[in-house]
Amino acid sequence: AKAFIFRNQFEGFPKESDFQLTNEQLPSLKEGEFLAEAEYLSVDPYMRAYAPRVKTGKTFMGSQVAKILESKNPKFPAGRHIVGEFGWRTHTVSNGKPLSTGVPTAWLIPDIGDLPKSLALGVLGMPGNTALFGFLEICLPQPGETVLVTGAAGAVGSLVGQIAKIKGCKAIGVAGSDEKGKWLVNELGFDHFINYKSDDLRKKIKEYAPHGIDCYFDNVGGEISSTIMLYMNTFGRISVCGAISGYNETKPPKATLVQYPLTFNQLRMEGFIVHRWLDRWFEGIEQNKKWIEEGKLKYRESVTEGFENTFTAFVDMLRGGNVGKAIVKI
Ligand code: NDP
């Protein structure tokens, strides 16, 4: 098995020298174990955020779509495809037992018809459920309301805006390039796009949300988020999904002002981890699959070829090089 070993804790932006590519001999299968071969790896922002919790000297974390090659575990039969929390490696021997957090180490990909298996790392997996539950359960969007989402052209954000449209809301997306904006508006049906790198954020919000924002799905945190909150309506809802604008900072985050808009606009702000809805995992996948089949939910993948290029795919995603879900094809 080829594997990326985590050598050094990141300081600021991850460096290639923080990893070591190794070749490992795998043990033979014991009763209750199976051997899985990776077909696609996922690269996600949480890997940067959670890295301080990973011990150096171990395989770096992450999910993969893998095929079971051999099995001595009836729950994971040979030939089936799974999503496994095996990290950045090509082959894994696992017993499939859940992690100590209760999160499954591996789950069988349900029947998704002719759709690509790689979607189990995106719209039909963790990012899809993050968008679905994190938006609907926390923002509680009502028809006619205005929804704003940051990180709008990414795996999670691109789905949140489309689900907002499905629910009869106005969707405004904030992302980092005009090319991304064109995709959001022309292909995904977002009503408006704001480029946080080149547009005047305040001016554009006033133009696109003249009656204020009711729901804010926050993928980025930082100053952009504090500014957005100033334009929220009374009793607005904020779903705090992530804070990627700060993940690569070496200094502690700048103090941002949230108390003022939270108080005076009487907002509700709630953070979440998608595993809150583990008991509804397959319901989420089924819902997103149905919307794809009905033509209501579109997805895009940014695919990097080759296991050896996983690090490149990871940093490219952190820099905004991806549109939709960033994955690696082995
Ligand atoms: P994306 O596909 O959105 O990829 C990351 C994107 O972040 C990049 O494409 C880039 O787009 C944007 N970005 C990078 N740096 C900055 C910055 N300084 N300011 C603003 N945007 C930036 O990733 P995901 O959809 O997988 O994740 C989106 C967010 O959701 C992350 O914060 C992640 O941690 C969080 N998350 C949380 C989960 C939970 O359970 N709470 C589960 C899954 C994800 P651009 O060109 O627009 O800058």
Automatic annotation (TrEMBL):
It is found in: Cytoplasm. Its EC number is 1.3.1.48, 1.3.1.74. Belongs to the NADP-dependent oxidoreductase L4BD family. This is Prostaglandin reductase 1. GO terms for biological process: prostaglandin metabolic process. Keywords: Acetylation, Cytoplasm, Fatty acid metabolism, Hydroxylation, Lipid metabolism, NADP, Oxidoreductase, Phosphoprotein, Prostaglandin metabolism. GO terms for molecular function: 15-oxoprostaglandin 13-reductase [NAD(P)+] activity; 2-alkenal reductase [NAD(P)H] activity. It is an enzyme of class 1 (oxidoreductase). One of its GO terms (cellular component) is cytoplasm. Its main location: cytoplasm. It catalyses: pentan-2-one + NADP(+) = (E)-pent-3-en-2-one + NADPH + H(+); octanal + NADP(+) = (2E)-octenal + NADPH + H(+); 6-trans-leukotriene B4 + NADP(+) = 12-oxo-(5S)-hydroxy-(6E,8E,10E,14Z)-eicosatetraenoate + NADPH + H(+); 13,14-dihydro-15-oxo-prostaglandin E1 + NADP(+) = 15-oxoprostaglandin E1 + NADPH + H(+). InterPro entries: ADH-like_C (IPR013149), ADH_N_2 (IPR041694), ER (IPR020843), GroES-like_sf (IPR011032), MDR_fam (IPR045010), NAD(P)-bd_dom_sf (IPR036291), PTGR1 (IPR014190). Residues 15-328 form the Enoyl reductase (ER) domain. Monomer or homodimer.
